[in-house]
Amino acid sequence: EPEVTQTPSHQVTQMGQEVILRCVPISNHLYFYWYRQILGQKVEFLVSFYNNEISEKSEIFDDQFSVERPDGSNFTLKIRSTKLEDSAMYFCASSGQDRETQYFGPGTRLLVL
Amino acid sequence: AQSVTQLGSHVSVSEGALVLLRCNYSSSVPPYLFWYVQYPNQGLQLLLKYTSAATLVKGINGFEAEFKKSETSFHLTKPSAHMSDAAEYFCAVRGDTGRRALTFGSGTRLQVQP
Questions:
Q1: B3, B35, B57, B102: best to mutate for the A interface, most A CBs within 10 A
Q2: Which residue from A43, A89, B25, B104 lies 20 to 30 Å from B2 (Cα-Cα)?
Q3: With an 8 Å Cβ cutoff, are A103 and B46 in contact?
Q4: For residue A101, what pLDDT is reported?
Q5: Spacing of C-alpha B44 from chain mean position
Q6: Which of A85, A109, A101 is nearest to A12 (CA)?
Q7: pLDDT grade, residue B96 (50/70/90)?
Q8: A91 contacts chain B (CB < 8 A)
Q9: What φ, ψ does residue B96 adopt, rounded to 5°?
Q10: Interface test with chain A among B3, B6, B44, B52, by most A beta carbons within 10 Å
Q11: How do residues B18-76 score in pLDDT, each as one tens digit?
Q12: Lowest mean pLDDT among A52-66, B14-28, B83-97
């Protein structure tokens, strides 16, 4: 069964450093998303992406965040200058033609020191 | 705007007992509703979804949920709990407005006692 994959599974970085989280969505899917879950808190929507542009973003997704689909398979989330409060599990998701169901990857646990 | 409230951050049941996880939603438009399960150190797996068809929805692993508009509820049930059901369960809502962002509840951790 096709699945969303994410790399790395864990990343530790120093405050102020740039990080890139990578995702490979399900191959025929067209809609891509990033969510995050701070430890002990709700899963929160960050951004959705369709047709090579951001279609929706939350208040969390400020100028330090960016997304990109650099090729036909990868979908990345970049955090330009990480802060302590960016420590969280970051989930990538994708959806296909039905647009209703989002399939989530296993997540990348980011720790900012 | 949408919101989800999951009553009970922790639920404990005995193996073989009924599982009932509560979810109430708020939505200004007809909602799409989802239950996801998260096993330890894993991602979110879709259990089931309601998308304005049948109000009783059957999902994987013997789970089902009933959409009750009058109660704005979408409670998750399973007749007989199994040890492998121990996980965290998230209810989520998406409004039918073309926006696709999911709004999640705070989650319910299910423990199954032998």
A1: B102
A2: A89
A3: yes
A4: 87
A5: 12
A6: A109
A7: low
A8: yes
A9: -85, 55
A10: B44
A11: 999 999 999 878 889 999 999 987 889 999 999 877 889 999 999 999 999 999 999 99
A12: B83-97
Per DSSP, which regions of B22-114 are E strands?
A: 24-27, 31-38, 44-50, 56-58, 64-68, 73-78, 87-95, 103-104, 108-113
How far CA A25 is from CA of A30, A40, A95, B49, B84, in Å, comes to 9, 26, 8, 20, 27
Residue B99 has pLDDT above 80, yes or no: no
Test A101 with B90 for CB contact under 8 angstroms: no
pLDDT of residue B73: 95
* Residue reference for tokens 């969303």: A4
Amino acid found at A62: D
Name chain A contacts of B87, Cβ cutoff 8 Å: none
